[in-house]
Amino acid sequence: MDMETLMAQAQDLQTKISSAQDELAQKRVKGIAGDGAVVVDMTGKYDIISVNINPKAMSVDAPTLSQMVADAYRDAKEKADILIDKTMSAITGEMSE
To answer: pTM here?
Structure first.
């Protein structure tokens, strides 16, 4: 493989990754905790869009509420991780073909 072909492939890969990152920024995942008492809405790039706390969650103590927020965040992050893996695997799968 000559250098020109290699550089063209690298540029193509860079374009695909940039496009995938833009796509991930537009996608949303929701992390849920406390049977829906806390919902974290996050992009596929881990940007938090919102944290919604149901009024029924206000009846718990502060440490419990804090734990629910953390659990909802972790749930959203796990879903974003899966979304990222699927998106990037599609790109790397194309490379191996």
So the answer is: 0.83
